[in-house]
Amino acid sequence: MNISFELNGKKVEADVPPRLTLADCIRHHFMQTGTHVGCEHGVCGACTVIVDGEAVRSCLMLAVQASGAKITTVEGLTPPEGLSPLQASFRKHHALQCGFCTPGFLTTAHALLTQEPDADKERIRHVLSGNLCRCTGYINIIEAVYEARSAYARTADSRKRTQP
Ligand code: FES
Ligand code: FES
User: Fold this and answer.
1) pLDDT of the chain along its 164 residues, tens only?
2) Could you give the CA distance from residue 66 to residue 58 in angstroms, rounded to a whole number?
3) Given Cys at both, which of 23, 99, 128, 139 links 59, Cβ 3.0 to 4.6 Å?
4) CA-CA distance, 111 to 123, in Å (whole number)?
5) Ligand 2 within 6 A of 23 CB?
6) Distance from the CA of 54 to the center of ligand 2, in angstroms?
């Protein structure tokens, strides 16, 4: 089936089997290998991408279901000049070791803070509870996301100011 969607700001197209997952499509058709595949059944969160503003497990979604959507992977969160404030906060707080889970944490946290820049630690913990990390532990990750909130609050303020 022919599908097209926006991936990290660019229109992309592919001819895919109907049963191909969005995760495999992103990785193998478009070589955005930052999206990791761990459990392949919706448990670990490593494959999380942002689909039309919502954090979605790309191993549970078919590529054909994404037709017409706007998709952001961890590559799309990274500005050309370096790390985003959220990524820089992960580095500062030592919120990763092997990094396998990190793309899923970053995309999930980005979707959360974009919608709720004032999320408190309890809310952050709750939303990230569906992402598994086997080596870092969660305290540093929660701290990193919590500290990055100010960057999202600034973005939300500037959006409000530019609205008529
Ligand atoms: Fe998708 Fe684990 S690979 S949730
Ligand atoms: Fe290794 Fe999370 S940093 S699994």
Assistant:
1) 999 999 999 999 999 999 999 999 999 999 999 999 999 999 999 999 999 999 999 999 999 999 999 999 999 999 998 999 999 999 999 999 999 999 999 999 999 999 999 999 999 999 999 999 999 899 999 999 999 999 998 776 766 666 55
2) 10
3) 23
4) 13
5) no
6) 23
Classify burial at 108, counting beta carbons within 10 Å of its beta carbon; exposed 0-12, middle 13-18, buried 19 or more.
buried
């899923």: which residue's tokens? 104
Instruction: Tell me if 38 sits within 8 A of 47, measured CB to CB.
Output: yes
Ligand 1: atom nearest CA of 59 is 1
DSSP state string for 47-106: TEEEETTEEEETTSSBGGGGTT-EEE-GGGGS-TTS--HHHHHHHHTT--SS-SSHHHHH
Cα 157 to chain centroid, rounded: 22
pTM of the complete model: 0.94
The number of angstroms, rounded, from the C-alpha of 6 to the middle of its chain's C-alpha atoms is 15
Work out the angle between the directed axes of helices 139-162 and 85-92 (0-180°, nearest 10).
Answer: 160
Question: How do beta strands 10-15 and 2-7 pair?
Answer: antiparallel
Pocket probe mutation, ligand 1, options 21, 24, 36, 40, max atoms within 8 Å of Cβ: 40
